[in-house]
Amino acid sequence: MLAAPAAQEQTGSAERASAPAARADAAPSADKPNIPEIIRRFAEKEKEFRTARANYSYRQVVKVQTLSPEGQVTGTHQLESDIIFTPSGDRVERVTFAPLSTLRGISLSPEDERDLKSIQPFVLTSDEMHKYNIEYMGRQKVDELDTYVFMVGPKRLEKGERYFQGQIWVDDHDFQIVKTYGKAVPDIRQKGQENLFPRFETYREQIDGKYWFPTWTGADYTLYFSAGSQRIRMLVRYENYKRFGSEVKVTFGDEVPPPTPQPQP
After folding, report:
1. Which of 51, 95, 121, 212 could cross-link 204 (Cys pair, CB 3.0–4.6 Å)?
2. How many structural domains compose the chain?
3. For each successive 10 residues of the chain (265 residues), what is the average pLDDT?
4. Is there a domain that residue 248 lies in?
5. How far apart are CA 108 and CA 100, in angstroms?
6. Could you tell me if residue 262 is inside a domain?
């Protein structure tokens, strides 16, 4: 989030995002399975999931609020949109509700918009593994799910790129991410400008019995700007997933015609 004040680096503690009810994690167990194989399998599954999600329409509801030190809401940014397919099969975002923002002291930046699309619903595929350090932390229960827990962070920060840094929980049966907790990095501090980002928590649910789709992201976090702190609350809901009738096909260059059938003797 962009701050109205000028920039100067400061650090501070954060409040963990509030999770939905009935989510209790157990302590990690001591066993250590074949970690490289698990990472390979969930990265491949995540790649499948990303392709599958591109064939679904859904509704996204975003609400960001600023809060006073006493916890009273002082401003709200809300955006509701439908990710849909046109009759020709193009996937587009149609805004359905966007009242005037009343946020105090901060505003959403282009980086916030990018994070809402790619970091909050974080996907770690085999194509992107080379960008991240991945460390196995143990096993935990997430609801009734047995999961592997990994610490994830970028190996290096490339200019203009956005990354996830935090923890992921991978289901030990479907080998897909079912929960993430962390933040988008890097924070941006430039002369005359501060752009800081909250820690968040995202949960997925199984859709159509095969893939785990993000359905809820929450954050309750204090951003520490040079001119003072600002507590924010964020809630993102992903609803009404519906599979499009045909697979999305992406082609590059001219389409190659099918071979001419050869006559049978």
Report:
1. 212
2. 1
3. 51 37 42 88 97 96 96 97 93 96 94 96 96 97 96 96 98 97 96 92 95 98 94 98 66 40 49
4. no
5. 13
6. no
| pLDDT score of 28 | 46
23 within a domain of the structure (yes/no): no
Q: Which residues form the domain of 140?
A: 2-6+31-243
Q: 24 in a domain, yes or no?
A: no
Dump the DSSP string for the chain: -EESSPP-------PPPPPPSS--PPPPPS----HHHHHHHHHHHHHHHHHHHTTEEEEEEEEEEEE-TTS-EEEEEEEEEEEEE-TTS-EEEEEEE-PPP--SSEE--HHHHHHHHHTTT----TTTGGGEEEEEEEEEEETTEEEEEEEEEESS--TT--EEEEEEEEETTT-SEEEEEEEEE--EEETTEEE---EEEEEEEEETTTEEEEEEEEEEEEEEETTEEEEEEEEEEEEEEEE-SS------SSPPPPPPPPPP-
Q: Residue 191: what pLDDT?
A: 81
Cβ-Cβ contacts under 8 Å for 213 (sequence gap 6 or more): 49, 53, 56, 58, 204, 205, 206, 207, 238, 241
For residue 33, the model assigns a pLDDT of 84
Q: How far apart are CA 189 and CA 187, in angstroms?
A: 7
Strand partners, 180: 168, 202
pLDDT at 264: 53
